[in-house]
Amino acid sequence: MSSQHINPYVPHEAIILERIQEAPSLFTLRLKFTEQKIQDAYEFEPGQFNMLYLYGVGEIAISIVSDPRDSHIIDHTIRVVGRVTRGMDNLKAGDRIGIRGPYGRGWPMIESKQKDVVIVTGGLGCAPVVSVINYIEQRREEFKRLTIIQGVKHTADFIWKDRYDKWRDLPDTKVLLAADVGEALWPWHIGPVTTLFDQLEFDPDNVCVMMCGPEGMMQVVVDHMLDYRVPASQLYLSMERNMQCAVGHCGHCQYGSKFICKDGPVFSYDKVSDLFNIKGF
Amino acid sequence: MEQDYHFFQTDQLQNLLNKLQDGGFTCIGPQVRDGAIIYDEISSVKQLPRGISDEQKPGSYSLKTDCGSKYFAWANGPQAIKPLVFAPKEKLWNSTQTPDGKINFNIAEPVTKKLAIIGVRACDIAALKIHDQHFMQQQYIDPYYTAARQSLLVIAVNCGHPAETCFCHSTGDGPFVSDGYDIALTELEDGFLINAQTIQGKTVLASLSLQDCSAEYLEESNLIKVNASKQNRQLPQFDIQSRLFEELNNEEWHTIATKCLSCGNCTSVCPTCFCHSENDVPDLDGKSSDHYREWDSCFGQGHSYIHGITIRSETSQRYRQWLTHKFSSWHDQYGRSGCVGCGRCMTWCPVGIDVIESLTKVAERRHE
Which of residues 186-225 of A touch B (CB under 8 A)? Predict the structure, then answer.
């Protein structure tokens, strides 16, 4: 399914192998194309996304969370927010959907080799960076210090506790968690995620920062990192905008002159700094 | 170049249509419908808007009759040729579901009907070239646009009657065509100058009985060009591309937004606007579902919607998105401005917002 694919708009059928309920409004679908030829030809990079089609309802852009090495299975973690995702929430193992992809430019996994990696996420789940963490976990020796920072509004929003516990056990890895609003027995930090930055250990000349979450949060991270003299070209953000075609034709995801779907969704900060965090773009 | 031009008498125009039809083309031409000049199928020159002219102003379009005997004595109508290559609504595929849940996807075959469009203006050819870039010359190729485009024979008619809203001369796109056509005509008092640019166009020319082009005819054509280039409006002279993005917080966006209805008329009539949405339309019995694409507008509420957030909730933000894209971001995307100077966005704006006035108010430095 290269860009030369004869008709870039048409999905292929895929079957749900497993459905995992991650949290009350968050679930993962483990998928496989039903046509073996399509499945065999399918390759992707962390940070890329697929268009998932719910029969009779429509399509939605969702990032891929599984590892490229496990390319026999495609995992998508989906938050229930709209018409398509609400419908997908009712799917179960054995059900079929449509998939086309992968699309976009993913995380800089080659460029970040032999560097410290800092991953900052805010909000719920933040599936786009899970693929990066999985990728590094499977190739731990190829990267230097790994720091994962996750900030949530409320402690109740903290999902995937098991995964964070597992990641904490990785060699040379630090997991820092913060909630703006706490509750009893929350063992981690209470306060904005940025207050955890003092605990960061990285070499500003040899670090790659990857972040996803609300743009206001990413702006704060960017500002801090620039203060630490990390070059803008080493700060990577995963951007989200309305996407309908995913191939740079429909115009919805335009961000200045960029098409988020094909020029992104992952951008280094220097590529988007002109418009970043300006309301209305 | 002179030897490339030929001449035929006005009464031979029908012969051109006949030859095109003989060549397997369906002819599309201008005609009057519902008080406007539109493009649709024609088989006879009698259907052309002979002696009809148009009067356009921001927010206003009307036709005048008894304006001489020319067929193309008007500027343009609401349509460009955009609807013929990029349909307002088009089925991309269909899916069916079997009782046991299997989904089959059936591709809608692109339409490859041979169309010859007569009466295409230079502004619309410029727009067509932009859409060629957008749909056919990027990473992904649109099969529907490509099929329609490759089935198209473009017969331009150089514009001798720009409207009050036209400014194609200042965008560098008109009033006469320079490339991007198969055949080009210039309508003179007694007939037409004709020349062809492509092999397909030259083949059609070879089937016609043409006269040599005299120096007088060329002179007459040149005079039409000179006069049609004297347009009432022109793009402001300052560096629009960089100035617009320096004025993102200008109060003027809000002033324009107090008038703008966010209706999307401007984006519908704009020959370069390409935004479209994709929608599924399931059959009532649930056994099948059609997947369409349909023109969309950055002025709509849903255009910037993403998981519960509308990025551009205010009209001022939508107008700013449209104008900055058209006149600034477009340069980075396609190497030129997205405006071809056709003036349709003003004419068909129900409240008559003048795009040149907007550019000037937002981005002209008033205190250097």
Answer: none
Q: Is B138 on the interface with A (CB under 8 A)?
A: yes
Residues A206 and A137 in one domain: yes
A194 and A168 in a single domain? The answer is yes
Looking at chain B, the number of H-run helices and the number of E-run strands are: 14, 16
Q: With an 8 Å Cβ cutoff, are B248 and A257 in contact?
A: no
Distance CA B193, CA B187 (A): 7
Query: What does B56-113 look like in DSSP terms, one character per residue?
Result: EETTEEEEE----S-S--S---S--SHHHHS-SEEEEEEEEE-TTS-EEEEEPPPP--
In a domain, A7, yes or no: no
Q: Same structural domain for residues B193 and B148? A: yes
- What mean pLDDT do residues B224-249 have? 96
Strand B191-196 and strand B6-9: the pairing is: antiparallel
Q: Tell me, yes or no, whether B49 and B187 share the same domain.
A: yes
Does A244 contact B at CB distance below 8 Å? yes
Determine the residue of chain B that is closest to A257 in CA distance: B329
Q: What is the mean pLDDT of each run of 10 residues along chain A (281 residues)?
A: 67 97 89 95 94 97 89 89 94 97 96 96 77 92 94 74 86 88 72 81 96 90 94 96 97 97 97 95 95
Residues A155-173 as b/e (b if ≥16 CB within 10 A, e otherwise) read bebbbbeebbeebeeeeeb
Cβ B143–A252 below 8 Å, yes or no?
no
- Give the one of B311, B324, B329 whose C-beta lies nearest to A241's C-beta: B311
Mean pLDDT computed over every residue of chain B: 95
A3 and B325 within 8 Å at the Cβ level: the answer is: no
Q: Which structural domain, as residue segments, surrounds residue B268?
A: 240-273+299-363
pLDDT tens for B131-154 read 999 999 999 999 999 999 999 999
Structural domain containing residue A133: 116-272
Domain containing A88 — which CATH number?
2.40.30.10
Q: Are residues A186 and A60 in the same domain?
A: no
- Domain count within chain A: 2
Tell me: do A258 and A154 sit in the same domain.
yes
Taking 70 as the threshold, does the pLDDT of residue B178 lie above it? yes
Cα atoms found within 13 Å of the Cα of residue B327, Cβ hemisphere only = 26
| Residue B293 within any structural domain of the chain | no
Check residue A4 and give its pLDDT: 43
For residue A277, being part of any structural domain is answered with: no
Per-residue pLDDT at B144:
97
Best mutation target among B89, B100, B311 (most A Cβ atoms within 10 Å) is: B311
Nearest CA in chain A to B312: A280
ipTM field: 0.94
Single pTM value for the model: 0.94
